[in-house]
Amino acid sequence: MICHSGKQTGLGHLSRTVSISNMLKKKFKANIKILIIGKLPNDNMFNIKSFKIIDLKNNFSNVPIKDEFDLIFFDLDPKFIPTKLSIFLDKVSSFKAKLISIDGLMNFASVFDLIFIPSFYIRLKKNYKYKTKIVYGWDSYILNKKKVKKIWKPGNTILVLTGGSDIDSLGKSWPKLFEKYLPKGSKIIWISGPFAKKIDIPINKRIYIKEYRAIKNLNNFIYQANYAVTYYGVSFFELLYANIPTVTFPAKKHKSKLRSELNSIKQFNLSEVARDKDQAIKLLIKLIKNNKRAFTIATNARKMVKVSGLLKLEKEIKKLI
Questions:
Q1: Cα dihedral angle (16, 18, 23, 29), rounded to 10 degrees?
Q2: What distance lies between CA 276 and its chain's CA centroid?
């Protein structure tokens, strides 16, 4: 399993890789080796046993891999695709292994046996040759299985997720805005990634803010929450699955790329969708004050995201082997 991880690429690719590897161990009794391109969080928050770190600048010129695997997975950041990836793919395509891409590399579809997209949204050119290799849909999100929260109830606990590195520095500006504008007595559970700076918590008695860093189990925090605000990404769909009314927005560098996808989320009425971090605060305040709206989007979200994509991926792998 080959994936990106680090301050520049975030933790989403590694998180998905770990979820898939756990499924492979359980369902197929697989032995897993993970090649991490970039950096592993210092405390190994995912408890990965067998792994090797590859420098982000390596460019696939010296990736240690032999023809000894049944499956080879790739989960790479599209902004950091190595220029020599095609050479590496030519090499491993001669192996006995089946090649599987998670969430991308569609330009290299000719060498892959499966391209699994954990999304309901995909855009392909009309003349794209390899549509039969691509699997996606609402049942394709790689989510950790958890107890289902069936009925949403209002409350004062707000979960804030800012990704592996908080690339827009929300930890500097948001705590002060929360203190100023959120209802008195609000309880903020702030989850910071291992590559993020510590947040600036104002000295106050009006609201409560607690920061947790590089946590190993997000599920426990999700089920404490009455509302959530998060970057659009893997964790957003964990929140939808858990029936939590959520405000989501794109990181600044992904804003143009995600516009169409986020518009679809908005049209499905699954979440409050903000154009940026500033509007996200305003929409969160409105959501907290509108129980009817919160209940509606929580209910809609649970109807759409019913199961983990790990079940679907398991079936697809069985077809390959």
A1: 150
A2: 18
Say which residues have a Cβ less than 8 Å from residue 59's Cβ, sequence separation at least 6.
82, 83, 84
Listing from the earlier edge strand, what are the strands of the sheet with 227-231?
A: 208-213, 187-192, 157-161, 227-231, 246-249, 272-273
* Cβ-Cβ contacts under 8 Å for 291 (sequence gap 6 or more): 154
10-residue mean pLDDT profile of the chain (321 residues): values are 88 91 95 91 76 80 84 92 87 94 92 94 82 91 69 92 88 92 94 89 87 84 93 88 92 76 90 93 95 92 84 95 90
Query: Distance (Å, rounded) from C-alpha 39 to C-alpha 11?
Result: 10
Q: Which two tokens mark 49?
A: 């046993």
100 and 76 Cβ atoms separated by less than 8 Å:
no
Distance CA 44, CA 53 (A): 12
Phi-psi region of 132 (alpha: psi -120 to 50; beta: other; left: phi over 0): alpha
CA–CA separation, 106 vs 110, rounded Å?
9
Considering the entire predicted model, what is its pTM? 0.83
Query: Measured between alpha carbons, how far is 124 from 148 in angstroms, rounded to an integer?
Result: 34
Domains of the chain by residue range: 2-143+308-320, 157-304
128: exposed, middle or buried (Cβ count in 10 Å: 0-12, 13-18, 19+): exposed
Q: What are the respective helix, strand and coil percentages of the chain, to the nearest 5?
A: 35, 20, 45
Provide the CATH number for the domain formed by 157-304 in this structure: 3.40.50.2000
